[in-house]
Design brief:
alpha+beta; 3 domains; single chain; wza like fold; Outer membrane lipoprotein wza fold like; 5-stranded mixed beta sheet; 6 helices; elongated; 356 residues
C-alpha cells in the first residue's frame, strides 16, 4: 500500500506483503565505477589512491569505523535497502550536527560514530520497512585525517586540525598499551613529501615513505628530531612488543619484552626469570630459534655452565627465541623410572608362578 503525504511517498509495509531479502539483495552494493563496499573493513586497511594535496576526499578503501566521530561538514553516503526516498547520494552534516533526510526528517549525526548512526537510522526506518539495512560511509572529511593503528590506547582515525606533532597526537589519544612495542612505524604519502627522518625508506610502487621512530627517543629528548609535524593521511602504527621466552628449570617461565633492544642475552634472560633451579642441567640448555617462512625452529645448544664461568661468550636471544633449561637426569631417578616400568609385568609373572 502506498500513501502520498505532503509530497513524500511513504511506503507502508504490511506483514505478509513484503518478501524477505534474498541472498542477492544482501550482496554488497557496488560503488560507482565498479568498486564494492566492503562491510566492516579493518581499520588498518591501506588507504586507496592518493587524492591531490588539499582535498579532503576519503578513499573508498579507507573505512572509518567504528571510532571516527562525525561532525559538522562531514559528508556521508547513506545506503538504505528498499528505501528509494533516501536514495544513494551524499548528505552533508550541517553546523548543528544534523542531517536532513527524506522520509525521516532531521537526524542528529554529530557526535555519533558510524555504527551509532546506522543503528539510529535502522531504528527510525523500522516504522516503514521490515528489517531495514542501512550502511553509512564517509565520502568527505571535515578535515584531513591521520591514522593510528595497532596497540594504542585509543586507536583510530582522527581529524588533523592545525599544526600537530607526533607527541601532541600521542598525548591526545592516551599513548600506548602496556604490551605495545616501543617502536612506531610512520607511513606518509609521497605527494606530501618524504618523511624528514634519516632512516626513511621510499617505496615508489606504493607511493609512500616509511620510517621507524623510537618511543625512548621521543621521551628522553627535550626536542627530539623524531617529533615530526604530522601531515594529512599519515599512518602511525605500532605492533605488539617483541619478546623472547624462557622455559624449563628457571624461577619463572614466560615471555620477556625486548623493549627498545634488538636482543637480550642469555644471562640477562636467566636473571630476569629468577635464576635457575637446583635441578637445572646447565650444560644441556638450548635455544629454539624460529626458521623464517616455516613453522619449524632450529635448536642451538648453549652450555650455560661455561657461560656463567666466563669460558664461553654470552649468547644473544633474538625476537621469538625460546631458551629452554632442562632438568638433570640423576642415576637414582633413572633407576626409579626403570623400576616403575618393569614392576607391573614382573609382579604379574611372580603371581602366576606362585599359583601354579
Amino acid at each position: 500500500m502506498r500513501l502520498t503525504l505532503t509530497g513524500l511517498t511513504v511506503t507502508m509495509v504490511v506483514t505478509g506483503l513484503l518478501p524477505r531479502l534474498d541472498a542477492q539483495q544482501q550482496q554488497p552494493v557496488p560503488f560507482p565505477g565498479g568498486q564494492q563496499q566492503q562491510p566492516n573493513v579493518p581499520i588498518n586497511a591501506p588507504p586507496g589512491a592518493p587524492a591531490a594535496p588539499g582535498q579532503n576526499e576519503a578513499s573508498p578503501m579507507v573505512q572509518v569505523r567504528p571510532n571516527y566521530i562525525l561532525g559538522p561538514n562531514d559528508q556521508i553516503l547513506i545506503r538504505a535497502f528498499q528505501v528509494e526516498e533516501i536514495g544513494e547520494r551524499p548528505y552533508r552534516i550541517d553546523m548543528d550536527g544534523n542531517v536532513d533526510l527524506p522520509l525521516l526528517g532531521t537526524v542528529k549525526a554529530g557526535g555519533l560514530n558510524l555504527d551509532q548512526l546506522e543503528a539510529e537510522l535502522n531504528k527510525r526506518l523500522a516504522m516503514y520497512v521490515r528489517n531495514p539495512q542501512v550502511s553509512v560511509t564517509v565520502v568527505q572529511y571535515r578535515s584531513e585525517p591521520v591514522f593510528f593503528i595497532g596497540l594504542f590506547r585509543s586507536p583510530g582515525i582522527y581529524p588533523l586540525q592545525g599544526r600537530r606533532t607526533l607527541v601532541d597526537m600521542l598525548s591526545s589519544i592516551g599513548g600506548l598499551q602496556p604490551n605495545a612495542s616501543r617502536r612506531l612505524t610512520i607511513t606518509r604519502r609521497l605527494e606530501y613529501g618524504t618523511l624528514p627522518l634519516p632512516n626513511a625508506v621510499v617505496d615508489k610502487v606504493s607511493g609512500t615513505s616509511t620510517a621507524e621512530v623510537s618511543m625512548g627517543s621521543l621521551h628522553d629528548n627535550v626536542n627530539p628530531a623524531e617529533d615530526i609535524v604530522l601531515l594529512p593521511y599519515d599512518k602511525i602504527s605500532v605492533a605488539r612488543a617483541e619478546m623472547v621466552f624462557v622455559g624449563g628449570e628457571v624461577g619463572k617461565t614466560g615471555g620477556l619484552e625486548l623493549g627498545e633492544r634488538d636482543s637480550l642475552s642469555v644471562v640477562q634472560a636467566i636473571s630476569l626469570s629468577g635464576g635457575v633451579t637446583r635441578e637445572a642441567d646447565l650444560q644441556k640448555a638450548h635455544v629454539l630459534r624460529p626458521i623464517v617462512n616455516t613453522s619449524r625452529r632450529a635448536e642451538i645448544p648453549i652450555n650455560l655452565k661455561r657461560v656463567f664461568d666466563g669460558k664461553n661468550n654470552d649468547f644473544p636471544l633474538m625476537q621469538n627465541d625460546l631458551l629452554y633449561v632442562p632438568r638433570k637426569h640423576s642415576p637414582l631417578a633413572t633407576a626409579g623410572k626403570t623400576a616403575l616400568y618393569w614392576a607391573p609385568p614382573l609382579l604379574t609373572t611372580i603371581l602366576y608362578l606362585a599359583t601354579r
